[in-house]
Amino acid sequence: MKKTDKENREIEMIRDEKPTSSFVQKTMQILEALAGKEKGVLEIANETGLNKSTVFRILISLVNLDYAYQVAKTEKYGLTVKFNKLAESNQSRFNLVALSLEILQRAADSSQETVFLYTYSQGQMIILHQIESPSPLRVVSKFNNDGKRPPLHATASSKCIIAMQGEKSMQYLLSQAPFPRFTDTTICSKEEMLEELNSIRERGYAMDDQENEPGIRCVAAPIYMPDHTVNSCVSISGPSIRMHGEKLARCIEIVKETAAEISRKIGATRES
């Protein structure tokens, strides 16, 4: 379809325009509106609340960069394969499980205990991967089955991630107090939990000292993203009859080294 004089003038203006944070936000709104379906300028404007001129100008930029296309017959726009490839490439780059497998296996071999890779999403802990101990007496998680999730106040992994996430997440956890007691060592008060989270940040790892289940000890260390945020961690779990003294100290070092190595592999330049 041949462009009008007005469209050509718009294109020239856009080429000379410096993007702003507001411009980027509007662009993302349009990209989200186009996900999975071709739409016209008016339809996008109504859906996003942006004016038609703004929508048109951003669409022209996306077309010029080959991230969007226009159907001549309907004058609707859609996202190109180039945009899909960009998303797929980024997803592959940050596939935490794939990037961590070899490192996690080394941790399992060194500790001879069960190793977990956890992530934190929408207030819940999710197991991404686990490598079970070769010992007949070993820890096997009961979570991730039938929708069960680890309690946020009584596991090393959840305390580790929440302690490193910042004030907002810490306050979310603390707002749940008083916490249900599972064992004699479960932390049940807001004051004790705050002290525990501060201690975790200082030493760089968390411990579940039979707080969730009697006879099981776990240690966990945070995985840092390139922007230094923490949403995932590595943990090592084993029976308390083995996880004590020198063995416990060794597992703490292994879990810290493992989390630090994964952090470096995904692009974190420092661990804190």
Question: How would you sum up this structure in a few lines?
Answer:
By secondary structure, the chain is α+β, with helices and mostly antiparallel strands. The chain contains ten helices and seven strands. Strand 5 (206-209) and strand 6 (216-224) form a beta hairpin.
Describe the structure.
The radius of gyration is 25 Å and the shape is elongated. With 272 residues, the protein is α+β, with helices and mostly antiparallel strands. The chain has helices spanning 5-16, 21-34, 41-48, 52-64, 81-93, 96-111, 156-165, 167-174, 190-203, 245-265, and strands at residues 68-70, 77-79, 114-121, 124-131, 206-209, 216-224, 230-239. The protein folds into two domains: 5-90, Winged helix-like DNA-binding domain superfamily/Winged helix DNA-binding domain (Arc Repressor Mutant, subunit A); 94-265, GAF domain (Beta-Lactamase). α6 packs antiparallel against α10 (245-265). It has a five-stranded antiparallel sheet with strand order 4-3-7-6-5, with helices on both faces. A two-stranded antiparallel sheet has the order 1-2.
Protein traits:
272 residues, alpha+beta, Arc Repressor Mutant, subunit A, Beta-Lactamase, 2 domains, 5-stranded antiparallel β-sheet, two-stranded antiparallel sheet, 47% helix, 17% strand, elongated
